[in-house]
């Protein structure tokens, strides 16, 4: 049995590992000239690690990048809005991990035969019969997996009339700073903007910022420093130590809910199927779940029955998490002073049980 995987990012490589371990012939088509990742850090939550455990890859990540759950949310002056019980979260759900995205991609890539990886290959059309037209010719397979991101060529081929990704109204900056001691992973909310910092295992700090902005707008590091200059420490210091060349900016998109993740011999996974806002940190974790679930379903049953089972299981779950992610981040982007004042007064009063409800189903997933 052969699978062609369109896209060599985290979701695509995880699928490649899963199918290779089950004895399938694997071909991974990646548009970029190399299988690598230029991003900054990534936090893997317990459910994502359980998905990697099925491939024997969870333990190396836990040993190399152990991390605490998020400490909580602050407002711009430093007052806590939500303070998490870190030890309680770990006892209840398991370990968190923070690594560089490139380290995760390298781990996955090393578990796939080198001859299966075809970089510099742009996919032009995917057909439901398992045929893929690309810049290197044509490939055919028993199964095609579209793991080619939010602007997926696979999805456009199969559902050309379905609305494409929509801009959610804010842009995102990500970068790493030199080593610096921190108290933990914290996100801070202002009016229409927020800033997060996450300690990395090597002492560096993974930082991200989000702000309401017109689509396509670009902001240099000096402007970011001005924007957050009066926020609580260590935010101004982290921005001061950042390198302009290391700051990545991307507009934030999500997908409208698709009516199906499968068609013929083709399945979508990850952002190609359910691109979501980053507010719950579940994008990569859901791609990992997708990949191992798809390989299990198709290999255990058959391609047709396995694809139906995959769609039946994964579509409701991922679309629910995408909706919760959208809702979780919305208050951070309110601009109205009365609304943000109400938010800042109300959040510290909310019961922890209510706050954890949005993530409990995500964290407790098992293969």
Automatic annotation (TrEMBL):
Signal peptide start and end residues: none
Task: Recite the UniProt keywords alphabetically.
Answer: Monooxygenase, Oxidoreductase
Gene Ontology MF terms? FAD binding; monooxygenase activity
User: Has the keyword Oxidoreductase been applied to this entry?
Assistant: yes
Domain FAD-binding span(s) in chain numbering:
2-324
Q: Name one Pfam family in it.
A: FAD_binding_3
Protein's recorded name: FAD-binding protein
């Amino acid at each position: 049995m052969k699978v062609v995987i369109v896209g060599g990012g985290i979701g695509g490589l995880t699928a490649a590992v899963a199918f290779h371990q089950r004895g399938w012939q694997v071909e991974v088509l990646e548009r970029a000239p190399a299988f690598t990742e230029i991003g900054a850090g990534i936090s893997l939550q317990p459910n994502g690690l359980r998905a990697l455990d099925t491939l024997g890859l969870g333990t190396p990540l836990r040993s190399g990048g152990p991390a605490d759950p998020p400490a909580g949310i602050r407002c711009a002056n430093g007052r806590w809005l939500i303070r998490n019980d870190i030890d309680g979260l770990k006892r209840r759900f398991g370990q968190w991990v923070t690594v560089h995205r490139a380290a995760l991609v390298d781990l996955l890539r090393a578990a796939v035969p080198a001859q299966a990886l075809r970089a510099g290959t742009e996919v032009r059309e995917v057909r439901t019969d398992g045929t893929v037209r690309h810049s290197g010719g044509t490939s055919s397979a028993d199964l095609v997996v579209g793991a080619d991101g939010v602007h997926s060529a696979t999805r456009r081929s199969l559902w050309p009339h379905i609305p494409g990704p929509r801009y959610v109204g804010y842009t995102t900056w990500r970068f790493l700073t030199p080593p610096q001691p921190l108290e933990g992973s914290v996100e801070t909310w202002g009016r229409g903007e927020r800033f997060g910092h996450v300690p990395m295992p090597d002492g560096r700090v993974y930082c991200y910022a989000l702000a309401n902005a017109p689509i396509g707008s670009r902001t240099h590091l000096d402007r970011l420093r001005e924007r957050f200059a009066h926020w609580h420490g260590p935010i101004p210091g982290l921005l001061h130590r950042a390198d302009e060349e290391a700051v990545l900016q991307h507009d934030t998109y999500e997908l409208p809910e698709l009516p199906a993740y499968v068609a013929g011999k083709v399945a979508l996974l990850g952002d190609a199927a359910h691109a979501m806002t980053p507010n719950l940190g579940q994008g990569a974790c859901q791609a990992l779940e997708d990949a191992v679930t798809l390989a299990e379903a198709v290999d255990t049953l058959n391609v047709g029955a396995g694809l139906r089972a995959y769609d039946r299981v994964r579509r409701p779950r991922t679309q629910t998490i995408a909706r919760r992610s959208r809702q979780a981040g919305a208050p951070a982007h309110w601009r109205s002073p009365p609304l943000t004042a109400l938010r800042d007064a109300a959040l510290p009063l909310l019961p922890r049980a209510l706050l954890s409800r949005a993530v409990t189903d995500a964290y407790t997933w098992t293969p």
